[in-house]
Amino acid sequence: MTSTPWDEARAAAYRAGTGAVRPAASVPLPDADGLTLASPLVTLTDLPAFPTSSVDGWAVRGPAPWRIVGRVLAGDTAPPLGADGTCVEIATGAMVPAGTEHILRVEESQVDGDLVAGQPRPNPEWRTPGEEASRGEELLPAGTPVTPGVIGLAASCGYDEVSVRPAPRAAVLVFGDELLTSGPPGVGRVRDALGPQIPGWLRRLGAEVGAPVGPVKDTLDAHVDAIRGAFDGGADLVCTTGGTMHGPVDHLHPALAELGASYVVNTVEVRPGFPMLLAALPGGRFLAGLPGNPQSAVVALISLVAPLLAGLQGRPAPELPSVTLGAPIPGRGSYTHLALVRIDGGLAYPVPHVGSAMLRGLARSAGFAVVAPGTNAAEGAAVPLVPLPLLDGERQ
Q1: Which position among 187, 189, 216, 388 has the lowest Cβ density within 10 Å, counted as fewest Cβ atoms?
Q2: Structure confidence by residue, pLDDT tens digits, 172-206
Q3: How far apart are CA 297 and CA 395, in angstroms?
Q4: Is 342:395 a contact under the CB 8 Å cutoff?
Q5: Among positive and negative, which fits the CA dihedral 337, 342, 347, 352?
Q6: Which domains does the chain carry?
């Protein structure tokens, strides 16, 4: 068994995802939230489509005073101003009449009967057609995650539907007879800490996922039945927890062989979490084997599952921002070291309680600092950061 360098494993997972990217579908705008643009978003018209008043006031032509000849509200079709010395009252967002030379703000005007006077500001007080974008201009590329802001932009361009990649469907299987699903641990039994948390990480990565299944019995038949059942239920991706090694009750590898799977990645040169795996099954489906230790499982999630899901959704490969270390972080020999860090004052600091079986450090971290193989990261060094997949507003 040959393990894969960490950066190569991430790239392999992304390539596997792009090779099985979900087919595009057109959906109504409100249903697109959280999905991914399958084609570029281009304007169907100029934005704005017509000259639009930026203020409430008077659209005027020629020198003051101006005789009031009408009113234009938002939604009206404005007739042109045909003669000097005339004006129309105009509302913010209304169409500016042809022939308008200035818009005089209402708060800077004086009205006497049907005459208006005042000094217009020198700069135009309206938006011109195409000021924001010209018809046919690409606003967002394919692969952009759809947010409420993207939906609003698409609506402003005139879209009723957009072409998107649907969310991959994921299932979580928990392996291990020793696990408890409720109450405190004790007397040789430990509480399952992965089944409750992995679905949340998967949702933040763009997948649809239901309740975890398990603990699955520590037999080969039970493993095969559980995996097959998850795929038969429509899963594009199955995430399993535990059983990624070759111990007496580790049945994942034999189960994958029985199911006709092939390895995309089988163990990764990273600490913690090296006994992770990603396997491809017939029909463009995948299984990610996450180690049983909780922090190692999250390392596997951000190392293999995050790039795989990005590829399946047609999104760009996850890029790693750089952080400056506020304290040194030792390396792990020939392995990449993913070290949990918190961000304070713009600097990244390692956190305590980061054993592979611990979650206390993870719960207060922004992500993992990447220490390259064969190196130690000194205070002040700039290193890549793998952010935890959080929702907007969650990061501290």
Answers
A1: 187
A2: 999 987 777 777 877 778 788 889 999 999 999 99
A3: 21
A4: no
A5: negative
A6: 4-22+166-312 (3.40.980.10), 25-46+131-165 (3.90.105.10), 52-127 (2.170.190.11), 322-387 (2.40.340.10)
